[in-house]
Automatic annotation (TrEMBL):
Classification via SUPFAM superfamilies: P-loop containing nucleoside triphosphate hydrolases, Transducin (alpha subunit), insertion domain
Taxonomic lineage of the native organism: Eukaryota, Metazoa, Ecdysozoa, Arthropoda, Hexapoda
Pfam families linked: G-alpha
Segments passing through the bilayer: none
Domain of life from the UniProt record: Eukaryota
Keywords assigned: GTP-binding, Nucleotide-binding, Transducer
Species name: Iphiclides podalirius
Nucleotide-binding recorded as keyword: yes
Protein name in the entry: G protein alpha subunit
Length: 386
């Protein structure tokens, strides 16, 4: 009998499996390269705080020298807080309640907005007395009517500690310290990947760019190669105006900016995740009796289950969700350095929303874990694995 040569039959399932294996190998090769995340949002939305959280969670935190380097910035934050309050008291028609504190008020006004090179015991004594004054507290409660940093109460409550000669900032102090971001900041870190998603570690590069109007023209420099956009919104800013434009509501500015990012053709390939940030401050404002309705009248007709805070945060989310389903007419697009309008993206996209408190390390850890898995799942699904 003549033996026929062995011919391997074609198995479509096996071939597809091998194809997937090759794709996985290629993906793992790319996987060793950094996933690039870009933080966008208006000024003081909390972007830099998230950068600091990544350092705490994934880069061994802050060294002693880094902590001591923050002392001048924290003390200046404390000074600008009490100075802005005292400076705005006459504007709002609020007087010092304890006559003995008038001298302290005059002292702070003489120091001026720039503060001191070296903060003395006399300085801290005056700040302490003023912060305990009823008139100062009344002016603080109306801080949405002028420009005051979010961490003012936090630092002024810690004035005794901040004034000590041996003061070393804690993680919480550093997270709340405000420094205006100019230019582009970058942090690199690695994160373990679940075994269910092929294990190993993934390197991340995270970029933070200034959110003030004058800084936005620099954004386009870091658009190329971005895998995901984290758009950060300060939800508690619903009753405040911009530092650079006292006629523009901060939350309305965030909505305008988000629409530009959503429609940008340069960011079409990037995943988009919205961090509805400063939930702690939003809840505190609602408990104080402040309402978003005077600034966003549509709130009067918004229906949602829950208390006033829950209703408010869901309403804010709906404002951004609505923009993801809206098509903008070209005539609405106004070119300017503040609005990097770059043609409309027509391809369907997904947008994910998270309620966050950037100063809460546990909250950021949980959200980042979810976002990390979301990004990896998206990458694997693009090659047909998930």
């Amino acid at each position: 009998m003549r033996l026929l040569p062995c011919v391997k039959s074609y198995d479509e399932g096996t071939d597809h499996s091998k194809h997937i294996d090759r794709e996985i190998k290629e993906w793992i090769k790319t996987y060793n390269e950094a996933i690039k995340l870009l933080l966008l949002g208006t000024g003081e939305s909390g972007k830099t705080t998230i950068i600091k959280q990544m350092k705490i969670l994934h880069v061994r935190g802050f060294s002693h020298s880094e902590r001591t380097a923050m002392i001048p910035h924290i003390r200046f934050n404390t000074h600008e807080s009490i100075f802005e309050i005292v400076h705005n008291m006459p504007v709002l028609g609020i007087g010092i309640q304890n006559p003995r504190n008038v001298r302290a008020q005059q002292y702070l006004l003489r120091v001026g907005p720039e503060g001191l090179k070296e903060y003395t015991e006399e300085y801290f004594d005056n700040v302490r007395d003023l912060w305990q004054d009823g008139g100062v507290r009344e002016c603080f409660k109306r801080s949405n009517e002028y420009q005051l940093i979010d961490s003012a109460e936090y630092f002024l409550d810690r004035i005794d500690l901040i004034g000590k000669e041996d003061y070393v900032p804690s993680d919480a102090d550093i997270l709340r310290c405000r420094q205006k971001t100019c230019g582009i900041q970058k942090i690199e870190f690695k994160v373990k990947v679940p075994k269910s998603m092929h294990g190993g570690t993934q390197e991340f590069w995270m970029f933070d760019v200034g959110g003030q109007r004058g800084e936005r023209k620099k954004w386009i420099q870091v658009f190329e190669g971005i895998d995901a956009i984290w758009f950060v919104v300060a939800c508690s800013d619903f009753d405040q105006t911009l530092r650079e434009d006292h006629l523009q509501n901060r939350l309305k500015e965030a909505l305008i900016l988000f629409e530009d990012v959503w429609q940008s053709r340069f960011l079409l390939e990037a995943g988009l995740i919205v961090f509805l940030n400063k939930q702690d401050l939003l809840e505190a404002k609602i408990k104080q009796g402040r309402s978003i309705a005077p600034y966003f009248p549509k709130y009067y007709h918004f229906e949602a289950v829950g208390d006033e805070y829950t209703r408010t945060k869901l309403f804010i989310r709906s404002l951004f969700v609505n923009l993801t389903t809206k098509r903008r007419e070209r005539r609405d697009v106004i070119a300017s350095p503040e609005r990097f309008v770059v043609l409309e993206a027509s391809r369907p996209r997904e947008c994910y929303f998270h309620f966050t408190t950037a100063t809460d390390t546990h909250n950021v850890r949980t959200v980042f874990r979810d976002v990390h898995q979301m990004i990896l799942t998206h990458m694997l699904s693009s090659i047909g694995v998930y």
